[in-house]
Amino acid sequence: MIIRLIERTAVLLVSLVVSSVLVFAFMAVLPGDPARVALGVNASDEAVAELRRQFGLGRPLPTQYFDWLGGLLRGDFGTSYVSKAEIGPQVFDRFQVTLWLVLAGMVIALVVAAPAGTVMAARHRKVSGLALSAISQLGVAVPAFLAGILLIMLFAVKLGWLPANGWTPPAQDPGMFVRQLILPALSLGLVQGAVLTRYVRSAVLDVLREDYLRTARAKGLRPFPALWRHGIRNAAVPVVTVLGLQLATLLIGAVVVERVFVIPGLGSLLLDGVSNRDLLLVQDVVMVLVVAVLVVNFLVDLLYVALDPRLRVGSR
Amino acid sequence: MSVVADVNVRTSDVLTVRGLTVTVRDKTLVSDVDLSVGPGERVGLIGESGSGKSLTALSVLGLLPEDVTASGSVRLTGVDHELIGADERRMSRVRGRRLAMVFQEPMTALNPTMRIGDQIAEAMLIHGTRPGRGAARAAAVELLERVQLPPDTLRAYPHQLSGGQRQRVVLALALANDPALLICDEPTTALDVTVQALVLDLIVKGVVARAAALLFITHDLAVVATVCERVLVMYGGRVVESGPVGEVFTRPRHRYTEGLLAASDLETTQRRLTTIPGNVPPAGQFPSGCVFRTRCRHATEVCATTPPWTGSETTGFACHHPAEAVDD
């Protein structure tokens, strides 16, 4: 188990280093001088030279890379070439917003997928199972932004139950925070939930065919308690894998959903950075997203160990 | 076989199966099986794969796959209702309590994410046969001891045990509630020969200690000879012959039993074993009349009609051209 932990940690560290190099290299090979890009085509050569000097853009790339990486490790995300503002505090604020959104989306996805997928598997030959299958198929086909627009039309415009957009920090007004979170979280979560449902279904179907479930029935457990006591933990392993991978999709989805619901999250910061040609800001935000995905997948690996004793306890 | 011809129906039987027929869609996999197991009796059910042995066992337990249906009658001593067609609520009270089963494949029969102790204790806690978790755990230690596994097996996970050890765990949890009938479906087929003898011995000791009846399914004649007192021979979803092990194995009457014994005769002086010509037909495609007639050297036109059962329910056969009876 300890070997596995060391191994996974090593994999995480290597992935972090490699991805930081890639993110930096990708921004570095973009055509054009970052200072020129930031200032626009009409800027004077003197202004561009001044900006290059100010941000040390003339230095060799490895020096710039280690400077950037060292800053990130200290929590210093650098200064925007465009707004001249500190990037760190912005990223931190926006990250919290996106974190809420993604977490709420994930919870909704799980709350939808776990029971729906289980029922679909348990009743895969009955009408109720097939009906749920059809609904989830439909859910998979709907992109998150479209779900968002449809939800706004129904719950905000037509019924007027919830605000159509906006964001309030939880500390400021918890009630409003929740009301504004519901629709964007639903549009993220329902679509992911539909995808996840398919995985839960196949995981539970696999478990239902297992011999140990028949043993559980032979002991005198009824079908559902047998599945609950002996199946869920076993079915959770593949589902958790997908959940980790889905987080990346959720972050991408958040970029779009934040646009639709006018939420000041990391996604809208990224889009702002792109449209303002604020290269360092884009580079930082992308790096933060990459780190988030890698860390979550590291945690998923640890979760396997908790779920499956075969990875934890060696043979005797 | 027909019940009418049976003159000595035993009333005290632990298990009584009458006219059991198992079908999947339009195919009949088991036809009209009658079978009884007396108190403390050890009965073997032998036949090749596809003969319907396992389906018979699963019908008794009510754990047939979804699209497979059973009809007929299955009664168990101490249970006041018919087992065929009983709802889950009633069947779940019988399974693991009055009736327990050991399956063929020990490697996958236990939940890989649950400790052995919890899996054994659960068998007792489901039926409330022990007052609480502590008592069930203590009982689990004792059950493990009886199958010659050390007490620290309680804390182990299945993957830490060998196939033979796992099968002993499955046996321990099957016997946890002192069932009236234990069904074993090829319990040693997946095990090493050296481990087989130990597991067979523990099965017999386990049922004898509880005065439980045993229905033992296997294709291995030698195993039946060691474990069982009486044997039923199945072929093509029908019982073709039954009787005391010594009698059936030394003086078979049905031509299939005869072939089966010749094919597995370990004391043969010939270099090659005699085989039964042809193959077992695919499930549900057995001939009408005598199911064995397409592979039988003695078959004639009369074999196109279903052979009647000759003898009593416990000792008899269904064959138009039986091997000659040898008088003692």
From TrEMBL, chain A:
**Localized where?**
Cell membrane
Q: Name one GO molecular function term.
A: dipeptide transmembrane transporter activity
Q: Which InterPro entries match?
A: BPD_transp_1_N, MetI-like, MetI-like_sf
User: Main subcellular localization, coarse class?
Assistant: membrane
Query: Which Pfam families does the entry link to?
Result: BPD_transp_1, BPD_transp_1_N
Q: Which UniProt keywords apply?
A: Cell membrane, Membrane, Transmembrane, Transmembrane helix, Transport
Quote a single Gene Ontology cellular component term.
plasma membrane
- Keyword hit for RNA-binding: no
Per its record, how is this protein called by name? ABC transporter permease
TrEMBL record, chain B:
Instruction: Note whether Nucleotide-binding occurs among the keywords.
Output: yes
What InterPro entries does the entry give? AAA+_ATPase (IPR003593), ABC_Ni/Peptide_Import (IPR050388), ABC_transporter-like_ATP-bd (IPR003439), ABC_transporter-like_CS (IPR017871), Oligopep_ABC_C (IPR013563), P-loop_NTPase (IPR027417)
Q: Name one GO biological process term.
A: peptide transport
> Hey, which family's this protein in?
Belongs to the ABC transporter superfamily.
Q: Which Pfam families match?
A: ABC_tran (PF00005), oligo_HPY (PF08352)
* Protein name (record): ABC transporter ATP-binding protein
Cite the PANTHER family for this sequence: DIPEPTIDE TRANSPORT ATP-BINDING PROTEIN DPPD, OLIGOPEPTIDE TRANSPORT ATP-BINDING PROTEIN APPD
One term under GO cellular component: plasma membrane
Note the superkingdom of the native organism: Bacteria
